[in-house]
Amino acid sequence: MQKLIVQGGTRLRGKVTISGSKNSSLPILAATLLTKDECVIHRVPDLSDTNYMLQILRELGAEVERASGTMNIKAEKIVPDTPYDLVVKMRASICVMGPLTGRLRKAVVSLPGGCVIGDRPVDLHLKGLEYLGAKVQVDGGNIHIEAVEPLKGCTMNLTSKYGSTVLGTDNVMMAAVLTKGTTIIEGAAAEPEVEDLANFLIKMGAKIEGAGTTRIVIEGVEELHGAEHTVIPDRIEAGTFLVAGAICGDGVMVRNVIPAHLKTTIELLQSSGYDVTSTKDTVTIMQGTSPKGFHLTTRPYPGFPTDMQAQFCALACTIPGLSSIKETIFQNRFMHVSELKRMGANIELDGDTARITGVPMLSGAPVMASDLRASAALVLAAINAKGTTKIDRLYHIDRGYEHLDDKLSSLGAITERIKE
């Protein structure tokens, strides 16, 4: 089991290049199943999650070649049954369900695994496919989907009590592109990653309008063809490094980003007293002269992203005053709180809200990562803490951050991976 040793008390300075988006790459890789032709995908990050997805594609029958972030995928002959041992390792594997249903009118997918951060049912995914005409059964931990008759377009709403569903929108969109007639998704997820998937599908010959809004219109086509696409930058990785610059930086620039995708993160940092400036594809943060507490509530895009909540929790622990964070997207997404408290953080939990009073200095301690973003928060806190921090369950970091410790080391952090 790998662990990360972080020596605290260092300052970060310099430039870091942001990788391609994990949350775009996974559904885009799955979408290559929609055509028999070869697809070429650039800037796919080297992560355990993307590696699992490539393994799933191979098991389904696709030919996959990879070199330096570029994937050549040809799914000429595929089968509808996904491998249990791979699907249970990653929640996003559920996004093969849409393209398999669209192309083969049949899919067998195990209920997915991934981070344990609350109840995230796949009901809306299945509801959307049923609207299109598919029959769905869940038996023995497997989802069985079959459409005896051709799928037909319709109007549906994919909003739940927790807001829109990103992967659910992805799945329905991928199934609908090969469906007869017009499909309208009301309450669609508006995240940039959904729009990125739609842009790839359009390159393949799909007819889609409204991606990036809460209403997506899809006109079905007979077939799709191969295409070449470059994945957008990872806005959560970029936001993580900006928070690192706020916590312990003397000038950190993130490169290869789309600043518009970071709007809420940038605005919150600025309102908290940090100097943040942007160009066309970079964002730079300088150490604040008088940082202060903040109050945030997670919301679906374009609101504040739940995937940045843990990192800002780490920031709140280190700045003067009282901050509050309300989580409205996922239950149980404050599991990092107990670990930050081991490092000396002053945090009180009240249901879905954390109230944090900044302390002069955190202390290094042995801590355990509970999920992907919580692990990043612990790393950021450790860099600023006094002494040494040992972070266990490092595999969570590798699910979503490409070479995070190497990139932080290039900025001046002192980190070391060990096996125990």
From TrEMBL:
Keywords from UniProt, A to Z, are: Cell cycle, Cell division, Cell shape, Cell wall biogenesis/degradation, Cytoplasm, Peptidoglycan synthesis, Pyruvate, Transferase
**Cross-referenced Pfam families:** EPSP_synthase
Sites of 2-(S-cysteinyl)pyruvic acid O-phosphothioketal modification: 115
Transmembrane spans: none
Q: Which residues are listed for phosphoenolpyruvate binding in this entry?
A: 22-23
- The molecule here is called UDP-N-acetylglucosamine 1-carboxyvinyltransferase
GO CC aspect terms: cytoplasm
User: What GO biological process term is on the record, naming one?
Assistant: cell wall organization
According to its UniProt record, which protein family does this protein belong to?
Belongs to the EPSP synthase family. MurA subfamily.
Q: What is its EC number?
A: 2.5.1.7
Record bears the keyword Cell division: yes
Q: What is its main location?
A: cytoplasm
- The answer to keyword Repeat applying to this record is no
Domain named Enolpyruvate transferase is located at: 6-408
Record-linked PANTHER family:
UDP-N-ACETYLGLUCOSAMINE 1-CARBOXYVINYLTRANSFERASE (PTHR43783)
Active-site positions on this chain: 115
Places the protein is found:
Cytoplasm
What is the recorded function of this protein according to its Swiss-Prot or TrEMBL entry? Cell wall formation. Adds enolpyruvyl to UDP-N-acetylglucosamine.
State the pathway, as annotated in the record: Cell wall biogenesis; peptidoglycan biosynthesis
**Which InterPro entries does UniProt cross-reference here?**
Enolpyruvate_Tfrase_dom, Enolpyruvate_Tfrase_sf, MurA_subfamily, RNA3'P_cycl/enolpyr_Trfase_a/b, UDP_GlcNAc_COvinyl_MurA
- What is catalyzed by this enzyme? phosphoenolpyruvate + UDP-N-acetyl-alpha-D-glucosamine = UDP-N-acetyl-3-O-(1-carboxyvinyl)-alpha-D-glucosamine + phosphate
* Residues that, per the record, bind UDP-N-acetyl-alpha-D-glucosamine: 91, 120-124, 307, 329
Q: Name one GO molecular function term.
A: UDP-N-acetylglucosamine 1-carboxyvinyltransferase activity
The species is Phragmitibacter flavus
| Uppermost EC category | transferase
Gene giving rise to this polypeptide: murA
